[in-house]
Amino acid sequence: MFGLLAAMIGVVTNYVTDEVPAWFQDQTRVWLVFALIVVTSILAQVVFSREKPVPPALPLVRPHFPATPRTLRPPTSSASALRGRDRTLDDIRSVLDAPAGRFVVVCGPGGMGKTALAVRVAEEAAQRGRPVFWIRWRGEGSSEGRTGEELLAAQMVQVAITLGLPEGEVGAVQQSGGSLVDLVWGYLERTSGWVLVIDNADRTEGLGIEGPVGEHRGWIRPGGAGLLLVTSRDRSPDTWGRGAVMVRLEPLSPVEGAQVLLDLARGGGSHEDAERLATRLGGLPLALHVAGKAVAQPTARLRQFNAYREALGDDTSQVLMSPDVTDPETARTLVGHTWELSLDQLAVEGVPLARPLLRALALLADAPIPRTLITPGLIPDTATDTVVGTAAIDSALAGLERYGLVDTPPPDSVSEIGSVMLHPLVREASTMLVVRDSDITGWRDTIEGHLIESAESWTAQGRAAWPATRLLAPHLLLLTDTHNDDSFTRLRNTIDNVAYELERAGFHTTAITLRRHVLDAESTRLGPDHPHTLNSQNNLATVLYSLGRYDEAERLHRNTLNSRSHTLGPDHPHTLNSQNNLATVLNSLGRYDEAERLHRNTLNSYTRTLDPDHPHTLTSQNNLATVLKNLGRYDEAERLHRNTLNSRSRTLGPDHPHTLNSQNNLATVLNSLGRYDEAERLHRNTLDIRIRTLGPDHPHTLSSQNNLAGVLNSLGRYDEAERLYHNTLDSCIRTLGPDHPHTLSSQNNLATVLKNLGRHDEAERLYRNTLDIRIRTLGPDHPDTLNSQNNLAWLAKGHTVRNGKRWGWPIRQRNR
């Protein structure tokens, strides 16, 4: 269009020639040409605008991400306003909108509101449709049996997988020995929109890989396509390196602090009164929060800001007026004195027990405290002048929560039971005041005794107390470092029993942590060859075996066997126990000939020294039959399993767990012999009894359901088998987790029956997922990994899948 107009204009205006065109001398004709050009231009513009309409603005479509796993979701934000941080929030928002190779470090001392600020950023990002992930860094490790580095790596991998990183790539990198951190960050650099908060990164050891954090070879890196936000007490830019946008939180101004107080206690006085109190409290958000909640209480003695300020007392004025409130020790002292007033108010209200209760809670581990642990036995007799009752404890705990000194998360946020949490600064300052004001030894002796008595009571209750027992674990671990030497034996036995109950409940990783701590303590105190140390080594190996960590279990069991053979002799019951357990591990490693030799030696020794119906003899006979079945010697295996079943039925009864174990194992051999109807009958009977006595989600119940499905598959009743396998897999994922060996066996078996139903795509997906997880968790040479590789390969070739995994449940003896 514009070319046409230019040509026409060129015709009209091309008068720089030797002579003027004749037609140009007629002015009327010239103006008509110009008019024609204008009209033509307008018409052309209309036509072209119709030919190419401007598309309407489309709404921004964000990529779809799966729901964030519960363990990675940010904490619930406070309903109160975030005062005095508007400019800080704007700075963070600018990085959120355009990271440009930057990440944010929100830094400052404890109680300055770092986590609250990060929660607000996470909340705003989620409202804008961004996937938000929250990791609480625990440099010292976790109660789940993993170091802080392992836990962080697992969570970072889960973040990337949730954003779409194929799990197969994770397994491939682990198999090849590549860098997991490079894989995760490489994916985060290609994926936009995410927000990741690493909270509480005060101890930076472990955040870097083979070097300081600031070298950015570890989990803290600039350059991601989303926002990485770290909260830490470490304010040094050198720690975090290039690309770190340092957001240093300072105390709130008197005006800002006053607004915090007025938000919490509207009737506490004028804005000027609130400013004076905020100044006295140094503008520390946590101290302001505690003071505001205290003044707001209807029954409070100090219901005015001025009265609260005056009550702080001259003895604390030097600390409270200190300008360097960013010093950690000053901050601890400041808030410590601040909530001492809240404790004074509770005492005036008739709740004097609040102070010693807070002291006791502060001496426990930095972990959720089960509500059922908070009883009168937690308070030393010297800490109060009156007899402490349950009602007084309940009242004190309610008062502490009312004044903001403790938090009580919803039961489903931590466990199936109620729990109590302390802010880290509250814990630190309370501990400091206990040390200053009283004999710390008396407090710790009382708490140790109460923890041990509670653990002994809960382990005796069994299943009903499993959730509380799990929350108790990190507090018991604290005792291994601070316990009274005279009570070490009792403490060790208690932790051993707690670990056993957690194994029964399926909390194997927590049990590993407990057993490892006990083993370390005994090795140091008693020596590596002491009978107690060897018992602990045996029990740690047993729980490692339960998680499929066979190589570690073999090493520990072999060490234990060698030590016991040397110190106790080859026929001692403990030596035979170790020989039995080592053989069981070798059987799971596929080293059947070695396993048979050890199991046969063990059985011969038991037969020679014990009664044929002795539990140890029958256990050994059961385990030898299991390895014979794996060697394909089914007739021998059937004979031994049937003898064991008959003896156990006669001596223990038909519903005893050991009897059901033998019935399960006999049915498994009958299935291998092709006697499917007999096998189905025995498996169905075992399943019915276990559902009735153990419940539908117990691991032994799921084992029976899995094995019954296997027989139905062998009978060609694929639809029934699929239904049972699906139910088993769902229960395993819910109760054991997606990476547990039993979960993976169930997933493998479901894939097998789907293959038999002709649903090859579904089968391949499950086989591949199982293989990827086994490579990641067990390694490429583990027997279960090789089994998965075999099944996937046979599916690709169109053959029948072999070696479907069943759960045998040989009983492994323990020394108590």
From TrEMBL:
Gene3D superfamilies: P-loop containing nucleotide triphosphate hydrolases (3.40.50.300), Tetratricopeptide repeat domain (1.25.40.10)
Short name of one Pfam family: TPR_12
Region (Disordered): 645-664
Superkingdom: Bacteria
Record InterPro entries: NLR-like, P-loop_NTPase, TPR-like_helical_dom_sf, TPR_rpt
PANTHER family recorded: AAA+ ATPASE DOMAIN-CONTAINING PROTEIN-RELATED, ATP/GTP-BINDING PROTEIN-RELATED
This protein's name: Tetratricopeptide (TPR) repeat protein
Species annotation: Saccharothrix texasensis
